UniProtKB/TrEMBL annotation:
This is 4-aminobutyrate--pyruvate transaminase. Its EC number is 2.6.1.96. It holds the Pfam family Aminotran_3. Its cofactor is pyridoxal 5'-phosphate. It comes from Aureimonas pseudogalii. GO terms for molecular function: 4-aminobutyrate:pyruvate transaminase activity; adenosylmethionine-8-amino-7-oxononanoate transaminase activity; pyridoxal phosphate binding. It comes from the Bacteria. The lineage of its organism: Bacteria, Pseudomonadati, Pseudomonadota, Alphaproteobacteria, Hyphomicrobiales. Keywords: Aminotransferase, Pyridoxal phosphate, Pyruvate, Transferase.
Length: 455
């Protein structure tokens, strides 16, 4: 860190508490202050350029420095910088974006509610479904089913749905009725001698057992990321979602697809629900909806849910939920332009093509002594580092390899994400095949340094 007491780094340390950061360690290292971005690159305040292999936080789909989004925001700011959507007020960008989302998503999804973040969206989903079930005369139908390893956000309800210990510890979470089922990650959770198909049978049976034990009339919904992201990029086993869906439908349990990371092309299909054959009752999207140029999330849901909620508003007077910036006109204008860019520039197809290169390039590391598993779909992937390749033993402490690799990555000009010892990749969807090769080459140098550091 710059030793100058008034450097930008020193002032960061003086004033800021950072999310998901060890504050004491941060006081020593200081921040990397990112100053600008262009395409797949970002540049820090010392002039160092990095390939952003994580698209920021799984989110800058169209890349950095996209002038069309800046122009869309500018135009909308001059015309109408803000208006709320309470008590029947509306604005054109919000209406057009809702219409667009319904058009490009599954037929079952007919209605939209906007929030500012994925966490708020998932809290809203919980409240909407509770509200609905109270209205349906099923006040006991409140429990959510989620999975260990899931990430659904960090607010009180969404943080409860999240199945990661670091997001619960010392926060008194979970704080809503939720049951976390086995993480559907075959490589880690599959048992000795168990085939992938047997693993799916076991998870399906677990779901049936949990429903039978609690009673279907107490379970409101099953929420899941089609492909789990922030917990370590874990694609589900073959056939898993079709089984989960069949069981939930049979028991009147709503299916919520959390596509906050997956949505808008990440897997090479517009939605990951398309990829896995999921037909959700509710879909949550955010991040790539605006490429994170503006904070925005949307909940898409069925007309059946809408009608139940609408009837209750007539009965009790209102849907008493919403945020000051729900359906923010600038965020929605940016979202509309962003989706137009994704369409016009064929970024879903590009994610598929460049994704194939990413998966192929990373597959080379399967034989590396530090690598336990390489996994992913399209332009999202992870390389899991292990202490013992044969037994899959984790490092002790967790992060012993991931943390140095993250640092070496910076030295070699690539920003990855280390989730413990799972190294995640989720680059902007504009990335070209040759840029994928360069990104992976930089990762390889960091991996070589990590191996030397641990030796
Ligand atoms: N859901 C998923 C699947 C996510 O990956 C995230 C964030 O990474 C969230 C919800 C929470 O979104 P936010 O950080 O915007 O609150």
């Amino acid at each position: 860190m710059s030793a100058l007491p008034n450097s930008i780094q020193a002032r960061d340390v003086r004033y800021l508490l950072h999310p998901v950061t060890n504050a004491r360690r941060h006081e020593e290292t200081g921040p990397i202050v990112i100053e600008s971005g262009d395409g797949i690159y970002v540049t820090d305040s010392d002039g160092r350029q990095y390939i952003e292999a994580m698209a920021g936080l799984w989110s800058v789909g169209v890349g950095f420095g996209e002038k069309r989004l800046a122009d869309a925001a500018h135009r909308q700011m001059l015309k109408l910088p803000f208006y709320h959507s309470f008590s029947s007020k509306s604005n054109e960008p919000a209406i057009l974006l809702a219409e667009k989302l319904v058009e490009i998503s599954h037929e079952r999804l007919q209605r939209v509610f906007f929030t500012n973040s994925g966490s708020e969206a998932n809290d809203t989903v919980v409240k909407m479904i509770w509200y609905l079930n109270n209205a349906r005369g099923k006040p006991q139908k409140k429990t959510f089913l989620s999975r260990l390893g899931a990430y659904h956000g960090i607010t009180i309800a969404s943080g409860s749905l999240t199945g990661l210990p670091t997001n619960h510890r010392d926060f008194d979470l979970p704080a809503i009725p939720v049951k976390h089922l086995t993480c559907p990650h075959y490589w880690r959770q599959g048992r000795e001698g168990e085939s992938e198909a047997d693993f799916v049978d076991r998870l399906a049976q677990e779901l049936e057992d949990v429903i039978a034990e609690a009673g279907a009339d107490t379970i409101a919904a099953f929420i899941g990321e089609p492909l789990m992201g922030a917990g370590g990029v874990m694609p589900p086993p073959e056939g898993y979602w079709v089984r989960v869906q069949e069981i939930c439908r049979r028991h009147d349990i709503l299916i919520v697809a959390d596509e906050v990371i997956n949505g808008f092309g990440r897997l090479g299909t517009m939605f990951a629900s398309d990829y896995y054959g999921i037909d959700p009752d509710v879909m949550v999207v955010s991040k790539q909806i605006t490429s994170s140029y503006q904070p925005l999330a949307a909940i898409l849901f069925s007309d059946e849910i809408y009608q139940g909620i609408a009837d209750n508003t007539a009965k009790i007077g209102t849907f008493g939920h919403g945020f000051t910036a729900s359906a923010h006109p600038v965020a929605c204008a940016v979202g509309l332009e962003n989706l137009a860019i994704i369409e016009e520039n064929g970024l879903v197809a590009n994610a598929k093509a460049s994704g194939e290169v990413l998966q192929r390039e990373l597959a080379r590391f399967r034989s590396h002594p530090l690598v336990g598993e390489v996994r992913g779909v399209g332009l999202i992937a992870a390389v899991e580092l292990v202490a013992d390749k044969a037994t899959k033993a984790r490092f002790d402490p967790v992060g012993k390899a991931g943390a140095p690799l993250f640092g070496f990555g910076h030295e070699h000009g690539v920003i990855v994400r280390a989730i413990g010892d799972q190294i995640a990749f989720c680059p902007p969807m504009i990335i070209r095949p040759d840029e994928v090769v360069e990104m992976v080459a930089r990762f390889e140098r960091a991996l070589t340094d990590t191996a030397a550091h641990l030796a």
